[in-house]
Design a protein that fits this description.
- A two-stranded antiparallel ribbon has the order 1-2.
- A hairpin with a 6-residue loop joins strand 1 and strand 2.
- The protein starts with a strand and ends in a 5-residue tail after the last helix.
- It is built from 13 helices and two strands, in the order ββααααααααααααα.
- The protein has two domains: 87 residues, no CATH class; 232 residues, MetI-like fold.
- By secondary structure, it is mainly alpha-helical.
Amino acid sequence: MQLRVHRITGQKQENSNGEGTELLREIRFGIQAMERQEFSPSAYPFILQGMEEVGLKKSKLGFWLFIMPSFVMFLLVVLIPAVWGLGYSFTDWNGISKEVRFVGLKNYIQIFTDDADFLHAFLFTAVFSILAVICVNLTGFLLALLVTSRAKGTTFMRGAFFMPNLIGGILLGFTWQFIFVQAFGAVYNSTGIEFFKNWLSDTTTSFLGLLILVIWQLAGYMMIIYIAQIQNIPDYLLEAAEIDGANYIQKLFRVILPLVAPAFTIGLFLSLTTCFKLYDQNLALTNGGPFNSTEMLALNIYNTAFKYNHLGTAQAKAVILLVVVSVIGLTQLNISKKKEVEM
């Protein structure tokens, strides 16, 4: 609806032709008239309202033009392949043949009844994720306390601690593989200390090696999240605690930790979902060895699809992984938010 403002009387009339150009022309004319003070003051609200209507239309158009590329890419890269993969999970497709036969829930039933490797990978991933989430967030929080203190060189330490997160998972895995195999092997040959012997050939030390790699990579990222929340704590709360005679440990548990709870919610969610979906580090460091003892869910899905050519079964495993990560992540968010303390 257009708003026509008379130059002298300032009365509002409705124009039903719907021509956007006419509206723009009248608003432009109205602005010029306002500058020349040819309108009565009562006409100004109608002119401004018309200007707001045009601005609102332009902002909506700009909004859709801005998000359209991202939405199209999300549709093509994420949403459509996800729906397509869900359909393949009900087939026996091998990824090569043109024959795709519908088998219903057979793949899902077979996974839980006749796939020991998947169940082992699921259990290993769950145990690893729990330990990794605790260690990553604890290490990140301690690093955040260190770099927000009054110690010297905190700026350099922030960059150094965050830098491992910038390294790709494959490169990171091969780097730590060199450390555990070559460097530790050289130390063992020189000193004879059993601790450095065959780290990636033993099931226990392989697990520890993968855990060390993940902590080293993710702790710096978690540190940034906790730094932001710690620096957001009002100084007067810490000063009031000091006036009341609280020492550093008491301030940490009574003031800092409760107020950092929102950051813990974010950190736990990000680290939990990342650990459950871990693939490239697992592939580069141990490739599931020794004897598939460190094979995680993502690597098991990859091997099922491209090593054994059971793409339908692999898609069913991927759907299960999606459901598990979603349920665990949302449950963790719900529980953590209940424990948050509003500042």
